[in-house]
Amino acid sequence: MAGIQITEITWDSLFCAVNPKFIAIINKGAGGPFLVIPVNKVGRIDKEYPFVDAHKAPCLEVQWSPFNDNVIASCSEDTTAKVWLIPDRGLTRNLSDPVVELCGHQKRVNTLQWHPTANNILLTAGGENKLLMWNVGTGEALLEISGHPDMIWSINFNYDGSRFVTTCKDRKIRVIDSHSGEVLHEGMGHEGVKPQKAIFLRDGQIFTTGFTKRSERLYALRNQEDLSNPILQDELDTSNGVLFPLYDEDSGLIYLAGKGDSAIRYYEVNDDPPFVHYINTYTTSEPQRGLGFMPKRGLNSMENETARMYKITTKGIVDVLQFFVPRKSDLWQADLYPDTRSTIPALTAEQWIEGKDAPPKLMPVNPDAAAQAAKPKVQVAKKANILAQLPPSQEPSYQNDSSPQVSPASSRSSQSRPASSQPSPRIDDDLGIVRVERQAQPRQASRTATAEKKAEPKRQEPEPVLPKQMVNLRSRADRDDGGPASAGQRRAASELDRIKREQARHVDSGPSATMCDEYTPPAPKTNAASSRHSVATSSGVDGNGRVPSNMDELLEDLMKMKTLLRQHERRIRLLEDQLADVTMSHAFEL
Fold first, then answer.
1. pLDDT (tens digit per residue) in 486-505
2. CA-to-CA distance for 223 and 230, rounded, in angstroms?
3. What is the rounded radius of gyration, in angstroms, for the C-alpha atoms of the chain?
4. Distance separating alpha carbons of residues 500 and 525, to the nearest angstrom
5. Which of 6, 227, 453, 521 is the most exposed place for a label (fewest CB within 10 A)?
């Protein structure tokens, strides 16, 4: 906005008040007028813009009601305080008829303050050093508080309105009960003779601003039980402007703005030493003549705006100062916006008159965004468990035992295989050991297994680690005299029976047959020459094409055949061992 002719009186006030609907500015003119302009209006304000023709003498301060954005109170040097009702769409003509006129002071009314929790309760301070508590609904004075020896500079209620703090020209700070007017605590404030301000913090401590004897501006944090000894005190500069503390009780931030300054300092107050933490300073080239502080209800919470001030410069321009907290997300930031004061009073005027106190009622800063954030973000539809339908994965089990281990999956698969596919032991008569070898499955079984593998989904399963061989040593006595016959022995015995049946066809029964049954041939000696002989398969003919003539030659040929078979079996076992080694190494590589 531009073209504002702000008042030129020398009283130490902010000359401005703002709420989510309107901004009120005390302007220059005959009597004590002030402007009421919608906050969304921009551009130059016409000189003929309607105003509130409030008082017959200069207006000193204006305050909006905390529970009705259309109700504003003003005080003036004409010894009166008045309450006005502003239309919803703003002024269309000059307003000169107040809703209530409060006449009780003999001198000018310096300052005023609305009660924070009780409806229609207003506190005013007069130049006769007297405080009056008003019920603006009826226009009657409820309580008169005296006892200040000099001019009262500021008044401010605590969080629930049960008490308030005042600063006086006698440089003392007083905490007074709201219902009885009794001075609860009293202490010496700042040493300077210039005006000092005091406000209640949410936790009950008191924050004050003032001057030293050398006119240096400073601030202090005090405990209301010991006002003379501040918890913390810090000097700022040597300017002459009075410092006004603007307190945001929701976030714990205090903004210090001085009349005639071009800078606004802001601090955070918490329980961590040194309790008042400096954040930053906002500086412009234009000094401020008036300043209005927007309540939390009027902020743009979707852009993370934490404070907004309306600064009126000496050139009649209203600058909007917005303070933002940068966040990457565009969602509702609940940590920046705790619940703030509601427009619904916690007490009626009658309840407060009866002596009741109550904390303020709270409301969300952005009710729609808060309600949306409270809903669940993801709505999960109830469906069947997909993971339960998948086949279980088979993983190899790794143990720290030094002996080879087999995974449970491989053990189960080995138990489910038929007996024909299990490894069968084989006895080596020459070496005296038992070897475990895998026998080949029949072709039909292998075809069935191949078809089952093609039908199943392909998945890579770790091959079980099989031992190269399992060795059991046998004694020579067990190998020669007892134990199961080997495959070579069984084949030799069957060949011997067949030869006996052939000989029985050509040789007559007699002593030779008896001798054949009783004869036990000596163990033949194997040599390189005998290993090169061939074995007759379908008849009793040796490798040279002749038929043995007697039993001795027959037995000798049989022993040679047995020896040759053993040699071939030994070579087969060696080849199988080599094949097992190659298979094992390939499995480890995979």
1. 666 777 778 778 777 777 77
2. 7
3. 55
4. 23
5. 453
Angle of helix 487-506 versus helix 551-589 axis, rounded to 10? 150
Token pair of 9 as six digits = 């009186």
Q: What element of type H or E holds 197?
A: strand 197-200
What H or E segment, with its residue span, contains residue 463?
none
247-299 pLDDT, tens per residue? 999 999 999 999 889 999 999 999 998 999 999 999 998 999 999 999 999 99
CA distance 538 to 248: 115
- Contacts with 282 (C-beta within 8 Å, 6 or more apart), sequence order: 263, 264, 265, 266, 321, 323
Select from 196, 264, 261, 204 the least CA-distant residue to 231: 204
Phi-psi region of 201 (alpha: psi -120 to 50; beta: other; left: phi over 0): beta
Q: Report the distance separating Cα 26 and Cα 292, nearest Å.
A: 11
Backbone angles phi, psi at 512, to 5 degrees: -65, -35
Of the candidates 211, 199, 213, 217, the residue with the CA atom closest to the CA atom of residue 261: 217
Does residue 304 register a pLDDT over 70? yes
Q: Which CATH number fits domain 1-108: 2.60.120.600, 2.60.40.1930, 3.40.50.2300, 2.130.10.10?
A: 2.130.10.10
* Range(s) of the chain covered by CATH 2.40.10.480: 147-237
Q: Which residues, listed in sequence order, are joined to residue 210 by a DSSP beta bridge?
A: 218
- The rounded distance, in Å, linking the Cα atoms of 126 and 102 is 12
For CATH 2.130.10.10, the residue range(s) in the chain are 1-108
Look at residues 402, 423, 422, 406 and name the one whose alpha carbon lies nearest to residue 463.
406
What pLDDT shows up at residue 388? 67
- Cβ 588 vs Cβ 475: under 8 Å: no
Distance CA 55, CA 37 (A): 19
302: Cα separation from own chain's centroid: 20
Does residue 491 sit in helix, strand or coil?
A: helix
Burial (0-12, 13-18, 19+ Cβ within 10 Å), 161: buried
- Scored b (16 or more CB within 10 A) or e, 428-456 reads bbeebbbbbeeeeeeeeeeeeeeeeeeee
Q: How far is CA 9 from the centre of its chain?
A: 54
Sheet with 22-26: strands ordered across: 16-18, 22-26, 32-38, 52-55
For tokens 């109170």, what's the residue?
Answer: 73
- DSSP secondary structure, 53-105, as one string: EEESS-EEEEEE-SS-TTEEEEEETTSEEEEEE--TT--SS-B---SEEEE--
CATH number 2.40.10.480 given to 147-237: yes
> Are 165 and 225 a contacting pair, CB within 8 Å?
no
Return the DSSP state at 558.
H
d(CA 448, CA 443) in angstroms, rounded, equals 9
